[in-house]
Amino acid sequence: RADLPPPRSELFMDKHLFNLKLAAKDLERNAKQCDRSEAAERVKLRNAMLKGSMDAAQIHAENAIRQRNQALSYRRMGARIDAVTGSMSGVVKGMEAAMRSMNLEQMSKLMEKFEREFEHLDVQSRVMDDTMANASTLSTPQAEVDSLIQQSADEAGIELRQQLPDSGKAAPVGTSTVSSEQVF
C-alpha cells in the first residue's frame, strides 16, 4: 500500500478537470463578448457610412473583423480544452478503476497518459495565447475590410461611389486614386 499514490491525487485531477471545464466556459463567454463587440462595430460602421465618414467606417470595419477573428480564436481554444478534458476524464476514470483493483502497473501507465495530456494542453495553450496576442496586434487584410464595407453598404442601400472622397472622380473600394506623380 505504500506504493499507492495518496488519495489526494484523485482530488487533484478532479480539480484540474473542473478548472479546465471552467476555462472552456470562460473562453466561450469571451467569444460571445467578441460577437457582441463585432455587432456593435458593424452598427458603427453603417452609421459612419451613412454620415459619409469613410475613414471612420474603415476603422470600424477593421475592428469588426478583429473581433470576429478573436471570437474564432477563443472558440478554437475552447474546443481544444474540451477535447483534452474529455480525454483526461477517461484517464481519471481509468485511474479510479486501477486504484480499486490495486493494479500498480495500470495506474502508472494511466498517470503517464495523464501527464502527457496535461503537457499537450500546456503546449497548445501557449501556442494559442501567442496566436491570439498576434491576431489582436496585426492589421487586418485590406481585402477583408473592403469586403465588409461593401457588404455593409449593400445592406444599408448606400452607393459607395458617392461616399468615397472625391479626387476628381470616384474610385471603387480597394482601388487607388494616387496619381503617377505621387508614387515613389
Automatic annotation (TrEMBL):
GO BP field: vacuolar transport
InterPro entries referenced in this protein's UniProt entry, alphabetically: Snf7_fam
Residue stretches of biased makeup (Polar residues): 174-184
Residue ranges of the region described as Disordered: 163-184
Gene3D superfamilies: 6.10.140.1230
Domain of life: Eukaryota
Family listed: Belongs to the SNF7 family.
The protein, known as: Charged multivesicular body protein 1b
Organism whose genome encodes this protein: Macrostomum lignano
Source organism phylogeny: Eukaryota, Metazoa, Spiralia, Lophotrochozoa, Platyhelminthes
